[in-house]
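Side project, low priority. Logging it here so it doesn't get lost.
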Amino acid sequence: MPVVRVELLAGRSEAQKRAAAKAITDALVSTCGTQAHDVTVVFVDSDPGDWFVAGRSVRPGPAPLASAGEGRS
């Protein structure tokens, strides 16, 4: 029973999630031979302020202040 967890920034509509869940389910059925009724897709919405890439927030806005040790080699 495949369980797929999809983490996204908040803001996708229910219709978008429904379409994504169907596409994910269809992909698992066609590639793994599982039954559609056995596939579970869970969406986890995150606030942009809780999501960081390479130490930087993905929230739009001004760049954070540098820390005391940043930039030293």
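Brief comment: The mean pLDDT is 89.
Revisit when time allows.
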